[in-house]
Amino acid sequence: MKKITALTLIAFCSLPALAQGQGGFSNPVQASAGGFSGPSVTATTIEQAKSLRDDAKVTLRGYIEKSLGGDNYLFKDETGTITVDIDSHRWNGQNVTPKDKVELQGEVDKDWNSVEIDVDRIIKL
Predict the structure, then answer these.
(1) Residue 64, C-beta contacts closer than 8 angstroms, at least 6 positions apart
(2) What letter does residue 115 receive in the DSSP assignment?
(3) What sign has the CA pseudo-torsion 36, 40, 46, 50?
(4) What is residue 90's DSSP assignment?
(5) Fewer CB within 10 Å of terminal CB in the chain, N or C?
(6) Any idea which fold 46-124 has?
(7) Distances from the Cα of 62 to the Cαs of 34, 52, 74, 109, in angstroms?
(8) d(Cα 54, Cα 3) in Å, to the nearest integer?
(9) 8-26 tens-digit pLDDT
């Protein structure tokens, strides 16, 4: 019984030294921070969004120029303008002016003769 205990203790004590050189063992403090490491979402321009299929997911960066009434707003980036539909609960208490750059995440909504974006999330940049 003493041999197993001594061997276990030696093996346990040598783990940190082995892990430092080989990289397969992570520091518990660092591991608890969590998060994603990899490619990020690339923004779509308005010009590109207009040519995408219905229900395609998009991320647009630009400015909300003005209200068009109801939940509809005119959104602008360097390639043009498009109507965006933002339900009141999507604002999440944020106040946005035409001077504030925002990121809109949503879906393309194509009808017979129009294209707009149904916004799921607004992020003030």
Answers:
(1) 73, 74, 75, 76, 84, 96, 98, 100, 102
(2) E
(3) negative
(4) G
(5) N
(6) OB fold (Dihydrolipoamide Acetyltransferase, E2P) (2.40.50)
(7) 30, 18, 11, 19
(8) 69
(9) 545 555 544 444 444 444 4
